[in-house]
Every structure is written in structure tokens, then in C-alpha cells.
Amino acid sequence: MPVALSELRCTHVALPSAGDSLAKVRAARCYTVFPVAAGGLKPAMIKFLASLFRGLSYIVGITAPPPEQDQRRFVFMWLGVVLFVLAFCAVLFYALSHIRLP
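RESULT FIELD:
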């Protein structure tokens, strides 16, 4: 079901009474829906990212799937690789900053 941007949903509008359980109190809160359309990434964005990652694959020397195939798995694979490398570098820099040399 598509969701409008910045849509606000409330599960319970009135304030819960003092005798209600914690679960009912939590359910009384309103929350905003994540502001991305229900379809996820748009096909144009997938195609753009696939072309960027295809070039990166050729530079690194990894074969890429043909452009006629579904590019979503290819794009998410490369996004996972990029996030992993960034997380590894962050942990490495944090560890190196706390090493005390004699």
C-alpha cells in the first residue's frame, strides 16, 4: 500500500488511563511513516546505480551481469560491499586511535 510522504499514524488518540498496561501506553503514541514510497528505490535510481557499479566492477576486474537482467540484486550487493568497507574502516581507525605505543 503506497504511503504519502510525512504521513502521521496514531493507533490510539485518547490518552490511556492510569491502570492501562505498558503495552497499551506504548500503542497510544503516534509515529511517522518512513518517508520512502512503498516500492523502495525507483527503477531509474536502480538503473543509475547499476551503471555506476558496473563501471566500478570493470575497474576492479569483476564481471557484472548483463544490462538486460534485473539490476536490483547487483546494486544491493555493491551497496553492501560499500557499507562493509566503510564500517571496517571506521572500526580500524577507532582501534588505531586507541593503541598506545611504548
